[in-house]
């Protein structure tokens, strides 16, 4: 495969855009460097780069593209927004329609507010939780990523996973000290942390199924225990469902898990491929938000007609019967196939999967927390990533990201992918 145009573009991009990328995770630094492949066009489960190469896409734009690229129903909605006006800064019917749809799908949300990104959504839930409880501290789990605002750039998927140490320059020590980080799936560590700080904790930030160090499910009883202690200590539970909502079924992951958080943050999938964030939850908590209450949150682009119409259309597509079952079936085929090939080639891996989201770790242990994900072999992953790319399969350029299926993937795509894995494992 030739990447001549992508390489030339990267040279140029680096002169004008910091690092040549608009989000660090798009850089190939974590996979041994090189020019990131630049895409020109997406269609269903595939996209095409500027050199004319076609790829089966498992990146799904880091999660949002669950319907596949350029879905005609969503394209129609976006076109309608383009010709009828993309932004008014006023009330619209679309925002009310969409809010009602989200509430029906996620019954724990009595009230909703839209904004523009997952980062904004999570950031606001924390402000609201602090306003509601009058407390300052926030608890989170090591390796979970919740956006790029200061408070959550602490043990956020890379860098130091210790208490109160910022992951990013520019985040103050004082801010980092407001965050308590504990290992996922470790009830003892959680209990100890709550005994020490529980009465100061405004909120516990939870990815109910972790999507930021592969895919990691909570162990039986773990999140139930987190919720129980949160209630006892008067801390709110915030579910960050930016990746998980509408990824595994039509609704939030917490419904599947039988949990009811106080607040939920949304993003990614619900925008149908356009920028979006949203948060919602219990009525009395949400009424802390301006103009009803003292917690301020606003946005020129919040609830814009384009994102609203794309989101409505996306949810309409996701109501199609059988689609989540099919992603589960194909996910199983992919996972089983990869494990069989690993045995054939004597490659050490361990896999985690929830329906159409798969994680492949180059390690011999079952991954239940961030430390174990970190112990997987990044150098082998880097070579695997490049070999898969050479065979027309696009994964995220990081060993911490999941492989996402979409409703556009077919069994034939899975078989083609497994041929690529066969090729790649033979070379490792
Ligand atoms: N929360 C989670 C769980 C995420 O995975 C992400 C993004 N990967 C965010 C929040 C931040 O969302 P955004 O990039 O839209 O700001």
From TrEMBL:
Its EC number is 5.4.3.8. The modification N6-(pyridoxal phosphate)lysine is found at residue 268. Keywords: Cytoplasm, Isomerase, Porphyrin biosynthesis, Pyridoxal phosphate. It holds the Pfam family Aminotran_3. It catalyses: (S)-4-amino-5-oxopentanoate = 5-aminolevulinate. Pathway: Porphyrin-containing compound metabolism; protoporphyrin-IX biosynthesis; 5-aminolevulinate from L-glutamyl-tRNA(Glu): step 2/2. One of its GO terms (cellular component) is cytoplasm. Its main location: cytoplasm. Its cofactor is pyridoxal 5'-phosphate. It is found in: Cytoplasm. GO terms for biological process: protoporphyrinogen IX biosynthetic process. GO terms for molecular function: glutamate-1-semialdehyde 2,1-aminomutase activity; pyridoxal phosphate binding; transaminase activity. Homodimer. NCBIfam families: hemL (TIGR00713), PRK00062.1 (NF000818), PRK12389.1 (NF009055). Belongs to the class-III pyridoxal-phosphate-dependent aminotransferase family. HemL subfamily. This is Glutamate-1-semialdehyde 2,1-aminomutase. The gene is hemL1.
């Amino acid at each position: 495969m030739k990447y001549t145009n992508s390489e030339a573009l990267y040279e140029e991009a680096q002169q004008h855009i910091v690092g040549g990328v608009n989000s660090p995770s798009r850089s190939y630094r974590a996979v041994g460097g090189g020019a990131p492949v630049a895409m020109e066009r997406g269609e269903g489960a595939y996209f095409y780069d500027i050199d004319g190469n076609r790829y089966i896409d498992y990146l799904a734009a880091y999660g949002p593209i669950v319907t596949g690229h350029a879905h005609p129903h969503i394209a129609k909605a976006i076109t309608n927004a383009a010709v009828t006006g993309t932004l008014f800064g006023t009330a619209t019917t679309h925002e009310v329609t969409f809010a009602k749809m989200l509430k029906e799908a996620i019954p724990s949300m009595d009230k909703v507010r839209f904004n523009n990104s997952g980062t904004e959504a999570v950031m606001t839930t924390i402000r609201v939780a602090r306003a509601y409880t009058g407390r300052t501290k926030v608890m989170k789990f090591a390796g979970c990523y919740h956006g790029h605002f200061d408070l959550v750039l602490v043990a956020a998927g890379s860098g130091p996973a210790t208490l109160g140490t910022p992951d990013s320059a520019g985040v103050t020590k004082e801010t980092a000290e407001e965050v308590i980080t504990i290992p996922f799936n470790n009830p003892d560590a959680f209990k100890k942390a709550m005994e020490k700080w529980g009465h100061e904790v405004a909120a516990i930030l939870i990815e109910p199924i972790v999507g930021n160090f592969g895919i990691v499910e909570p162990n039986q009883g773990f999140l139930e225990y987190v919720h129980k202690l949160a209630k006892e200590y008067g801390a709110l539970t915030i579910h960050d469902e930016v990746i998980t909502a509408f990824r595994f079924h039509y609704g939030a992951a917490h419904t599947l898990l039988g949990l009811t958080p106080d607040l939920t943050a949304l993003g990614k999938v619900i925008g149908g491929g356009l920028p979006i964030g949203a948060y919602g939850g219990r009525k009395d908590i949400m009424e802390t938000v301006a103009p009803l209450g003292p917690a301020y949150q606003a946005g020129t682009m919040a609830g814009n007609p384009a994102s609203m119409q794309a989101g409505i259309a996306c949810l309409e597509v996701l109501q199609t019967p059988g689609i989540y079952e099919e992603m589960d079936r194909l996910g199983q085929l992919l996972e089983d196939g990869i494990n069989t090939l690993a045995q054939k080639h004597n490659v050490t891996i361990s896999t985690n999967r929830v329906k159409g989201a798969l994680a492949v770790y180059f390690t011999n242990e079952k991954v239940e927390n961030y430390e174990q994900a970190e112990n997987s072999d990044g150098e082998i992953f880097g070579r695997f990533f490049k070999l898969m790319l050479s065979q027309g399969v696009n994964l995220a350029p990081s060993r911490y990201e999941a492989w996402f299926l979409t409703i556009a993937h077919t069994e034939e795509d899975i078989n083609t992918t497994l041929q690529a894995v066969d090729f790649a494992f033979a070379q490792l």
